Amino acid sequence: MNVRVVATASGWQTRAVLPPLPADFLLSVVMPIYNEQATLREIVTAVRAVPIRKELVLVDDGSRDGTREILAELANLPDVRVLLHDVNRGKGAALRTGFAAARGEVVVVQDADLEYDPAQYPLLLAPIVRGEADVVYGSRYLVDDADATRERDSLHHYFGNRLLTFWSNLFTGLNLTDMETCYKCVRREVLQDLVIESRRFTVEPEFTAKIARLPVRIHEVPIRYRGRAYAAGKKIGWRDGVSALWAIVRYSLRR
Questions:
Q1: pTM
Q2: How many structural domains are present in the chain?
Q3: Which domain holds residue 73?
Q4: CATH code: domain of residue 92
Q5: Which of 154, 155, 250, 159 is nearest to 202 (CA)?
């Protein structure tokens, strides 16, 4: 695969060349949303700009900040579907709704903030399209540390993510570098064998623990990432980290 990273004055962009896709190939982009009026239009524009045939499944999880007014506009776009939760149920519940509605051969999760760049979809899709993987994780920690343009997470988020990934690997037998990544790209048939129970951010370790028990091939690819601070709307906190540790044990040991 031919991949190049381009640094620009406004940030970065990763580009990859995909193997040829079937003419009827459809990618489902599932986006859980909660109070994201500041970034929603921009991230939807970025997703729609990726030159891959796709559907964008927007799942609003009871937003109260004006997000729903924006969604009413976006629902008129031909490649966008909007699903609404009457009350806030959590990211896990939003993903469960989105996965059930997805119609594409491959499904990728996209957060509604601007931390993850949709231009990287070809990186995630390439191993699946080549027949080498059934599940692909986009890892923030496989990026070359010598790259001076890489933006960093805060120390406590970095440490927390690495700790949770280590704990997850210990219980699942996997060897991931970034279990907590948003970018999980999966053949839709794999999702049909999963039942997501988590309501909040414990969906990440639950997803990984249940994937690890399936006869699937899991790959990681390096991605670029721009973390945001709490002042900019970051929602996950230390309590979610504690819950994630318990979820790793719970879902890994359950048979």
A1: 0.86
A2: 1
A3: 3-253
A4: 3.90.550.10
A5: 250
